[in-house]
Specification:
single chain; alpha/beta; UDP-N-acetylmuramoyl-L-alanine:D-glutamate ligase; 35% helix; disordered C terminus
């Protein structure tokens, strides 16, 4: 029986521009969207809770998620515009973005009862959620905890206020994803390579922390055990969405019974491969090894 995942977080339509070109490729984006689709590709039954605009961008987002077998029954439509992120990728693969739209997530009756129906709650872009809809997240986390279910978080760069809110939600057993910059901001421990983060995460409060370190791979902690994995060599076209692909694959493999080491290796591989393209279908894992 497949594990089930409820994921809540920012939903975005990305308009991708390459170099100086003015034509763009609109694709689904946002932490929850990419992580959810990647987890679904690896065999989890994923339900997405979020909100987009009642417009063509929102319709496109919903349709693409359904193509990848993500349950969108709780994807709400607002009267505002869908959140759109314009991303320009320069010749070095670095990306620059700007935002348009105002769709904001709100809670409707019934959303607080999800905890008995899913094996895990994942809050993607948790810092954004702590800022915009803390009451929703607090309620969902409480209900999942009371039901003995699993909870995980994906972090972006956080302010002091967001940091305090997030620490109030987290327990040592929760899986927490962050990149090296975010970990440095949260803890003050910085390094030039993944090896330097091994001791730092062991000394941190994140008992099941996972740090992605770009081309240097990733480091994971599970209790007192540390695991690391280097990145395969790839031709980087864009790093957009790579961290969310990583978290989606990692959660899928762990919830399917893989070890931390196995999940880390598979997540690093898939995230690295996603950097070779900026197209939606190429972002997602190219092959699966699903348990029967």
């Amino acid at each position: 029986m497949s594990s089930t995942l409820l994921i809540i977080g920012p939903l975005v339509v990305d308009n991708i521009y390459e170099g100086e070109r003015e034509d763009f490729e609109p694709i689904p984006g946002g932490n929850a969207v990419i992580a959810g689709a990647a987890a679904s590709r690896f065999g989890l039954k994923v339900t997405l809770l979020g909100q987009c605009g009642n417009d063509r961008a929102g319709e496109s987002l919903t349709s693409k998620l359904q193509e990848h077998h993500v349950d969108t029954r709780f994807l709400l439509s607002s009267r505002g515009e869908s959140k759109v992120c314009s991303i320009r990728i320069d010749r070095e693969g670095e990306w620059h973005r700007g935002w348009v739209g105002d769709a904001v997530l709100y809670l409707v009756p019934g959303h607080g009862s999800f905890s008995t129906n899913y094996d895990r709650l994942h809050i993607a872009g948790a810092n954004s959620m702590a800022r915009t809809v803390p009451h929703i997240c607090e309620e969902l986390v409480r209900r999942f905890r009371d039901a003995g279910k699993k909870v995980s978080f994906g972090l972006n760069r956080v302010s002091q206020d967001e940091r305090e809110a997030l620490h109030g939600w987290m327990e040592e057993k929760d899986i927490v994803f962050m990149n090296d910059v975010e970990f440095c901001e949260l803890t003050g421990s910085c390094s030039d390579d993944s090896g330097g983060y091994a001791g730092a995460i062991l000394a941190s409060r994140y008992g099941c922390g996972v740090i992605t370190c770009g081309s240097n791979g990733a480091v994971a902690r599970n209790g007192l055990k540390l695991f690391s994995c280097s990145s395969p060599q790839v031709t980087v076209r864009s790093t957009v969405g790579a961290g969310d692909v990583f978290s989606g694959v990692f959660l899928a493999r762990v919830d399917q019974g893989a070890s931390t080491e196995e999940a880390l290796r598979e997540a690093v591989r898939c995230a690295s491969e996603s950097c070779e393209s900026h197209l939606w279908d190429d972002w997602l894992p190219r092959e699966t090894s699903l348990p029967e």
